[in-house]
Structures are given as structure tokens and as C-alpha cells.
Amino acid sequence: MTVMAGQVWVSLISLGGVVLGGVLSYLVQHRTQQSADRAEQQRQRLSLSETRRAERLALLERFVEVSAEAERCAYTRPAEWEDTDDWYLTTRDVMYRLWVADRLLRIQFPQPVHDTAHAHFLDLNRTVWHGLPDGGSVRDFLEGNRSAFLDAAREVMG
Question: What is the 3-state secondary structure (H, E, C) of the chain?
């Protein structure tokens, strides 16, 4: 009977070892899976962040490019123009694209960046369609809000 009791104890200890090994294996696998999940989430966040940065950079490039076109329109603004003049037709298209670029900045950027971009847009719009008082410099008039916009954009993108 003592032999039988010894065999029961050996079997119970063996079973306990299997259970303990299974539990430890489960815990290690669980921790490994959690670590892999966290690494994947971090990779996805980083990928999303890089994608958003690229999108933002493209929007900034678009706005700067179109605002430069609008500035050229302001420099070449004739004293008098008609709705059928080439200058008007080109400028109307440029100003529409600038309006769209301004709205896209509002969607993708914090309010301070959009506020400065919109102030620059309004300066360009006023200069293109209404001109400046005699003796006024287009460059000087546009410089303040243009610089403020570029500074705000650099701060956000930095």
C-alpha cells in the first residue's frame, strides 16, 4: 500500500509539474503577445504620424505655391481689367485654388496655423482684386502675414 501511495504522490507531483509548466507557458505567451501587440500599435502610430506629416507638408507646399502665383497676379494687376481679360481669367483660377488650399489648411492644422494662413489669404485677395493705394508696395503689404504664416507652420512641423 505504501508503494501505491508513493505512486499516487509521484503522479500528483508530475501532474502538478505539467499544470505549473502549462500555466508558466501560458503567461509567457500572453506577455509575448501583449508585447507584440504594443509594438504593432506603436508601429501603426508612427506610420500614421509619418503619413499625416507628409500630408501636411504637401498641403503647406500647395498653399505656398498657389500663394506665390497669387502674388504674381497681384504684381501684374492691370489698372483696369474686364471679366474677359486673360489676367482676370488666370487670376480667378489662381484665387480659387488658393481659397481651396486655405480651407484644407483649416482641416489639417491647428487653429493658429490656419489663422495666419487665412490672414495671408485675405491680404492676397485684397491686393489682387482691389490693388493697393498709390505708392504701396505689394511685397511690403504681404510680408507681415506671410512671415507669420511660415513661422507658425515651421513651429507645427518642427
Answer: CHHHHHHHHHHHHHHHHHHHHHHHHHHHHHHHHHHHHHHHHHHHHHHHHHHHHHHHHHHHHHHHHHHHHHHHHHHCCCCCCCCCCHHHHHHHHHHHHHHHHHHHHHHHCCHHHHHHHHHHHHHHHHHHHHCCCCCCCHHHHHHHHHHHHHHHHHHHHC
**Which amino acid, 94?**
V
Residue 87's pLDDT band, with cuts at 50, 70 and 90, is very high
Distance, in Å, from the CA atom of 147 to the CA atom of 155, rounded to the nearest integer, reads: 12
Distance (Å, whole) CA 106 – CA 97:
14
Q: Which amino acid, one-letter code, is at 97?
A: R
Rg (CA), the chain: 33
CA 131 to each of CA 49, 98, 111: distance values in angstroms, whole numbers, following the listed order = 41, 17, 28
13, three cell numbers: 507531483
Give the tens place of pLDDT for each residue, 30-61: 898 988 889 888 998 999 999 999 999 999 99
